[in-house]
């Protein structure tokens, strides 16, 4: 009887340990007001500031039939994703590595990969909450229509989250210290935001530049979310680009990630 009971305990221990790690990481995450602000409040705040500019609420010639404030909904969502995956998550994981926490975890029932999974889940959830907040504020304050292609929008958003978190995992793998993670994140942030259309929506870019941006993960995400928001099914090229980037970035992160 005892011989049968032992394997059962060994199977249950990791799941209990994983749950304990997630609970602990959640408690620590909630105690980081800076990260919560930049992920969940800043993108919507920026969106509201842009919405107070009269030209953003007028239908212009650059994007026929649409206002700039309508176009900036997915851009605000992608800003939150970038804040979570590039600015917030890598310094935490590299800090754990730098302090030897991951190495010590390897001697316990907790798998070090559990920490990475918990961090990705928490930052992904925070970004999704920010996305819901942006969509709600846009609808209530600026009469931005809700996404007309609901399933396509959810699919595009899910792939965008996966691609963003995969990029964050890669930066975590390449950075050896928290300072390095902050520096690499800052370097990656601005090109990614440009490709998402923060300074110039992808729809208004010159043809060649726009096609280049659509190949990049956040450019493809911006176009896929915009299309679904307008009621069209996202282009398979954009969805495929997001899926491909997720696979490539995840594979690179797994290849170069070190636990100590």
From TrEMBL:
Segments traversing the membrane: 36-56, 68-89, 120-142, 154-174, 180-200, 236-257
Coiled-coil features, chain-numbered ranges: none
Compartment(s) of residence: Cell membrane; Membrane
InterPro entries: ABC-2_transporter, ABC2_TM, ABC2_TM_bact-type, ABC_2_transport
Domain of life of the organism encoding this protein: Bacteria
Domain ABC transmembrane type-2: 34-260
Bilayer topology term: Multi-pass membrane protein
Protein family (similarity comment): Belongs to the ABC-2 integral membrane protein family.
The protein, known as: Transport permease protein
Taxonomic lineage from the root: Bacteria, Bacillati, Actinomycetota, Actinomycetes, Kitasatosporales
């Amino acid at each position: 009887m005892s011989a049968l009971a032992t394997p059962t305990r060994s199977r249950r221990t990791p799941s209990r340990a994983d749950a304990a790690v997630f609970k602990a990481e959640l408690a620590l995450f909630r105690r980081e007001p800076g990260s919560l602000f930049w992920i969940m409040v800043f993108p919507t705040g920026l969106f509201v500031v842009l919405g107070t500019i009269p030209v953003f609420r007028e239908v212009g010639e650059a994007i026929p039939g649409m206002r700039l404030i309508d176009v900036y909904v997915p851009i605000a969502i992608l800003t939150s994703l970038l804040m979570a995956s590039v600015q917030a998550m890598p310094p935490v994981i590299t800090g754990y590595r730098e302090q030897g926490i991951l190495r010590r975890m390897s001697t316990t029932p907790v798998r070090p990969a559990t920490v990475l999974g918990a961090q990705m889940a928490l930052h992904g959830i925070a970004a999704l909450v920010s996305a819901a907040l942006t969509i709600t504020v846009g609808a209530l304050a600026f009469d931005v229509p809700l996404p007309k292609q609901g399933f396509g929008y959810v699919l595009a958003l899910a792939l965008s989250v996966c691609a963003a978190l995969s990029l964050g995992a890669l930066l975590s793998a390449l950075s050896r210290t928290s300072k390095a993670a902050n520096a690499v994140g800052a370097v990656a942030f601005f090109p990614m935001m440009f490709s998402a259309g923060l300074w110039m929506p992808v729809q208004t870019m010159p043809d060649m530049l726009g096609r280049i941006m659509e190949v990049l993960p956040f450019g493809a995400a911006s176009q896929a979310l915009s299309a679904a928001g307008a009621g069209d099914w996202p282009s398979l090229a954009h969805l495929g680009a997001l899926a491909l980037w997720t696979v490539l970035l995840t594979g690179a992160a797994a290849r170069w990630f070190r636990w100590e």
